[in-house]
Amino acid sequence: MSVAVRKIIIVGASLGGASAALALREQGYDGELLVIGTEAHLPYERPPLSKAVMLGERDEPDWVAERKTYSDQDIAVMPGTTVTRIRPGDRMVEAAGVDHPYDALLLATGASPRRLAVPGADLPGVFTLRTLDDALAIRSRFTDGARVVIVGAGWIGCEVAAAARRHNASVTMIDPAAQPLVRVVGVEVGGAFAGLHRDHGVDLRLGVGVLGFDGDNRVTAVAVAGADPVPADTVVVGVGVQTNIGLAVEAGLETADGGVAVDATLRTSDRRIYAVGDIAAHDHPAYPHRVRVEHWANAKDQGRHVAQNLLGAAVPFTARPFFFSDQYDLGCEYRGLADPERDDLVVRGDLNSREFTAFWLRNSTVAAAMNVNQWDDGDALQRLVDDAAAVSADDLRAGRF
Fold first, then answer.
1. Any idea what the CATH number is for the domain that residue 358 is in?
2. Are residues 205 and 262 in the same domain?
């Protein structure tokens, strides 16, 4: 950026936004720095919400930083504040009836859970999970014998189901797909997760659509296609998210793939505005298409990376996607970006034993790798994904990588 940057505003008191703010100070930026967010809490990391917090092992998430850190580093944080408009022509952000000028602007507005457009979706007892308050409210209902229905067998649905079973609730998980997690890992590996949940007492209803939620003053059952309603005291809907891009759209920024279009350096169509995290539809140097990733590591890493670019650099963000999950006694890490319907699956180990590594091969290179209850090869798997070097299925099965 050719002009001096004396005030940076970050819209979104999120992991990505707070990581950028802290990195700006680490890199020597001494101008004004304002972080504005809608949640009442200081910025925090979301993975513990469906894991440790939901399990009851702790009551707080991982805070990105303590309140004193923001104060000591002269980072102004405005929680519980909604930005109502961005005026790029004036270089102005409107929030709580006040105009805030900026030299550079970062959007880190994240996403909101999708809700099913079915009857009864707003009944008391029907929840989505996104915030700390959501997690604590849901956990309070996970009691011995409670009838819990999880709608959606993705990562959130699977982790919440595992937590509910830890509290000895009765759990039914419903998804129209053939297996849990099928969109990410495919049918075969998804089958291993189905077996995991069944072995822990979850009633899986796969290939089934939800028609609505029954009840008068609270949810009492979930109506499903072709079967009797499923009794429920609590329903958790985990069917994906929709990106919070309304401000960007109104400001006239280019959009793509359900997010805000950014170039390799995470800059939007306005040269003074950048975007990170769930909303960033990234022109990733390693892929022939835009990449938009809704995971913890992406928000954190993009936030830290974009700081230098807000100050005038133009360094591409090249990190590959990474995420992890914990369910019962199973832990896994996933690196890269696979298309299970297109890529060839190679498994080292035994899917049924739940100690294996899955590889997705594309043109003899590893598009993605997932280690399950195996922790020695993380660095090697990362190199396989990053380097995109040719490798054979036989070598992968034998551990020659």
1. 3.30.390.30
2. no
Contact criterion met (CB below 8 Å) for 318 and 284: yes
Domain housing 343? 329-398
Q: Are residues 253 and 232 in the same domain?
A: no
DSSP state of 61: -
Number of structural domains in the chain: 3
Q: How far is CA 286 from the centre of its chain?
A: 21
Q: For 91, phi and psi rounded to 5 degrees?
A: 50, 60
Residue 3: exposure state from Cβ atoms within 10 A (0-12, 13-18, ≥19): exposed
Strand, coil or helix: what is 148?
strand
| DSSP secondary structure code for residue 201 in this structure | T
Residue 1 has pLDDT above 50, yes or no: no
- So what's the pLDDT on residue 46? 97
Q: Do residues 122 and 215 both lie within one domain?
A: yes
pLDDT computed for residue 164 by the predictor: 98
Between the alpha carbon of residue 78 and those of residues 33, 38, 99, 308, 384, the distances in Å are 11, 8, 14, 23, 42
Site of tokens 């909303």: 279
Distance CA 65, CA 383 (A): 31
Residues 249 and 108 reside in one and the same domain: yes
Q: pLDDT at position 3, please?
A: 54
pLDDT in tens, 280-331: 999 999 999 999 999 999 999 999 999 999 999 999 999 999 999 999 999 9
Final residue of a domain: which of 237, 261, 281? 237
What pLDDT score does 282 carry? 98
**Residue type at position 24:** L
Is the same domain home to 340 and 260? no
pTM of structure: 0.96
